[in-house]
Design brief:
mainly alpha, two-stranded antiparallel ribbon
């Protein structure tokens, strides 16, 4: 076990210990018993549009690479990758999606890995950006909010500017040795990734869909807070959920291993909820968001695992153009 993982587990255990020490467990149980089920059901139902949007943003990238997948296959692989990436350290489980796309839709491994890397990197960037923006909304007066929105919108262009700066193709290693073949594979994947990031239209449309997903997730937390008789704003709900998600990511812990729930409860406590209410919301998040998505991913994996490799589903495979970009052949 790496030192970083050990530190992450230690932080998670310490945070949970502090919360339990200060917590009235009977109070948490009382809050859960008195939960208004209607709000929780609405939060649960929001998983449906979230799943559709997650599949839709993957379609944007695959189309740019020259592939057109059947709706059910696209949604199944996108949801499976999203959930596996959420419950495994550093999103490593999402790489299974590249193999499934190769086996079931004839998507090359380099394109599949580029898809996963693009979505993971951009999602983490947008998560950090929007969580930071929510923090600014919490600490600044309402009159300054338009400036925060403008800065956030401009921030979405940062990956495009970076890709435009570093998008020049590099020479590929010659030879047939293992290192040379590995080097060519890495550079091919990096070339696809740079080309995707340099496409401003793709970047902005994918970012817009992702921010819509974040808004719905924030709305889920807001509804769950309402279910325990707490009133918070959407920006506060997203700050709590986004902050706890970042805590999970940076500690490389599967399923958050306590630090996700503890940080969510602690952040909600800072938003004005009692510690018992914040803990109850964290429990409800597991029940109405995490658990249903895990069940959906398991249900999606079964037909994918049993399904035979299909003939190529791509409208046209992506190839590297002379400028280092990609396009359908």
């Amino acid at each position: 076990m790496s030192r970083l993982r050990i530190v992450g587990y230690a932080l998670g255990a310490a945070l949970v210990a502090v919360i339990v020490w200060r917590l009235d467990l009977e109070g948490v149980w009382r809050v859960l018993r008195e939960t208004e089920a209607g709000w929780a059901v609405l939060a649960l139902l929001l998983n449906l549009p979230i799943a559709v949007l997650i599949g839709g943003r993957s379609r944007l990238v695959l189309r740019r690479l020259g592939y057109e997948l059947h709706g059910s296959l696209l949604l199944s692989t996108a949801m499976l990758g999203y959930v596996l990436g959420s419950v495994t350290p550093a999103g490593s489980g999402d790489l299974l999606r590249a193999k499934l796309l190769r086996d079931r839709a004839d998507v090359s491994i380099s394109h599949g890995v580029a898809l996963v890397a693009f979505e993971r990197a951009l999602s983490f960037f947008l998560l950090t950006l929007t969580t930071g923006a929510s923090l600014l909304l919490v600490v600044t007066p309402v009159a300054a909010w338009p400036a925060v929105f403008v800065l956030t919108g401009l921030g979405c262009l940062a990956p495009w500017l970076a890709a435009a700066r570093f998008a020049a193709p590099r020479p590929r290693p010659a030879g047939d040795g293992l290192l040379a073949r590995g080097g060519r594979y890495v550079l091919e994947t990096a070339s696809q990734l740079r080309a995707l990031s340099a496409d401003a239209g793709l970047l902005l449309s994918w970012s817009a869909v992702s921010i819509a997903v974040f808004v719905l997730m924030g709305l889920q937390v807001l509804l769950l807070a309402r279910s325990v008789s707490a009133d918070i704003g959407l920006h506060e709900a997203w700050l709590a959920y986004g902050g706890s998600t970042l805590a999970i990511i940076v500690t490389f812990l599967p399923l958050g291993a306590g630090i996700g729930d503890g940080s969510l409860a602690a952040l909600l406590h800072q938003m004005g909820l009692s510690l018992e209410q914040g803990t109850a919301v964290a429990v409800l998040v597991r029940g109405t968001i995490t658990l249903p998505l895990v069940v959906a991913a398991a249900a999606a994996y079964v037909p994918l695992a049993l399904r035979r490799a299909a003939p190529p589903a791509a409208a046209g495979h992506a190839i590297e153009d002379p400028a280092g970009g990609v396009g359908p052949d």
